[in-house]
């Protein structure tokens, strides 16, 4: 894997795709597997509006039934973990649609 494919960067957030480590402002953030996968998907699709259904289809196992509330719970968890390091809301709720990661 080339270096540019090894790490995703967005502002002060870096995601190492090999070691599966997330860093915000140089501090390691402990993420569960699904939180990591969700953050990776958000970072690869930054500044795009993503529906809850699309997030379920692309991040969760298609063979397991999950409701869109599952996405909301994981987004809420990511927001809590980011709050200590990032003063603005980086994952924005798009009313009745889904979410947008970015500025």
List the helices and strands and how they pair.
Layout: H1 3-6, E1 7-10, E2 13-16, E3 21-24, E4 27-29, H2 33-44, E5 49-51, H3 52-59, H4 68-83, E6 91-94, E7 98-101
Antiparallel strand pairs: 1-2, 2-3, 3-4, 5-7, 6-7
Helix pairs in contact: 2-4, 3-4
Molecular structure report:
This protein has helices at 3-6, 33-44, 52-59, 68-83, and strands spanning 7-10, 13-16, 21-24, 27-29, 49-51, 91-94, 98-101. With 103 residues, the protein is of the alpha+beta class.
List low-confidence stretches. Answer: none
SS element count, helices: 4
Gap between N and C termini: 29 Å
CATH topology of the domain at 31-101: Arc Repressor Mutant, subunit A
Task: Offer a quick outline of the entry.
It contains four helices and seven strands; from the N terminus they run αββββαβααββ. The strands form two sheets. It has a four-stranded antiparallel β-sheet. It has a three-stranded antiparallel β-sheet with strand order 5-7-6. Helix 2 crosses helix 4.
Please name the defining characteristics of this protein.
Arc Repressor Mutant, subunit A, alpha+beta, 4-stranded antiparallel β-sheet, single chain, 39% helix, 3-stranded antiparallel β-sheet, 103 residues
């Amino acid at each position: 894997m080339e270096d540019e494919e090894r790490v995703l960067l967005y502002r002060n957030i870096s995601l190492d795709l090999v070691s599966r480590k997330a860093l915000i402002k140089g501090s390691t953030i402990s993420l569960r597997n699904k939180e990591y996968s969700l953050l990776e998907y958000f970072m690869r699709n930054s500044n795009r509006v993503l529906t809850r259904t699309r997030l379920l289809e692309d991040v969760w196992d298609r063979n397991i039934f999950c409701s869109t509330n599952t996405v909301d719970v994981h987004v809420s968890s990511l927001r809590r973990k980011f709050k200590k390091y990032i003063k603005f809301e980086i994952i924005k709720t798009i009313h009745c649609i889904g979410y947008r990661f970015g500025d």
